[in-house]
UniProtKB/TrEMBL annotation:
Native organism: Pedobacter hiemivivus
UniProt KW keywords: Hydrolase
Pfam families in UniProt: Abhydrolase_6
SUPFAM superfamilies for this protein: alpha/beta-Hydrolases
Keyword Hydrolase attached: yes
Protein name, UniProt field: Alpha/beta hydrolase
UniProt GO MF annotations: hydrolase activity
InterPro entries: AB_hydrolase_1 (IPR000073), AB_hydrolase_fold (IPR029058)
Annotated AB hydrolase-1 domain residues: 22-242
Superkingdom: Bacteria
Amino acid sequence: MKYEVIDEGGFKYIEAGKGETLVLLHGLMGELSNWEPVIDHFKENYHILVPILPIYELPILTLGVRSLSKYVNKFLKHKKTNQVVLIGNSLGGHVGLIFTLAHQESVKALVLTGSSGLYENAFGGSFPKRESYDYIREKVAFTFYDPATATKELVDEVYKTVNDRSRVIRILALAKSAIRHNMSKDLSRITIPVSLIWGQQDKVTPPEVAEEFHELLPNSELNWVDKCGHAPMMERPEVFNEYLSKFLNRILLK
C-alpha cells in the first residue's frame, strides 16, 4: 500500500486530495489497498477518506453492521466532515446504507458495489477447511471473475486472517449480523441519488441483488461491469472509475 495510514484520535485511515469528500468503505475481508486505483484516479479533484473499519477492535458483544455505522459517524465528526459521498463495497456498502438511513442530511450521494444488505452468498456460516491453503485460495478466487485477481498476497492475507481464532469469530459474527439486518423494507426511505456499480458475474451478491436494490431505491441508477465479480474497483478499475466519474459529475457539478 503506497498511501500512509494515519493513526489519530482512535481512528486509522487514509486521506488524500482536496475538494468534495468521498468516503470509501471496505468490505468484511477487504483491505485499504482494494481502493488504491480509485484513490489514484480521484485524488486530484476530490478529498478522499478511507477509514479502517474496526472489525477486530470493537467489543465482540456490540460488533455488528449498526456499530460500524456508528463508528463511521464518529469518524466523520472527528474529521469535521459533512455532506459526503459514501462509496461502499460488500459489507462497506451495507454500513453505508445504514449510515445514510440515520444521517441522510449528511450524505450527498451513495455508491454501492457488490453491497450486502439484501442477500449475499459469502463464506457461509463457518470456514470448514480454514487450515487448507488451497481451499482458501479457491474461496478468494470465487470472489472474482478472473481467478488471477486472487493474487498470492491477497490469499496469504485471507489465510492468515481466517486462521486467527479471535479474528474468525469476529468475521462470522459480522457476517451473521449482515444477514440478519435485511434492508428491503427500509430502502424506499433513501431518496438521495444512488449509483449501483455491479459486476455482471458477481457470485457473492449476484446480479438479481443489484436489480432488487435498483427496484427498491427510488433514486438509483444501475451500471453493469462485464467480466467482473464482487469487487469491480479491484478487478475492472477503469470501468468502475468511469462510471463513478460520470455519476459524480452529474450529482456534484449541477
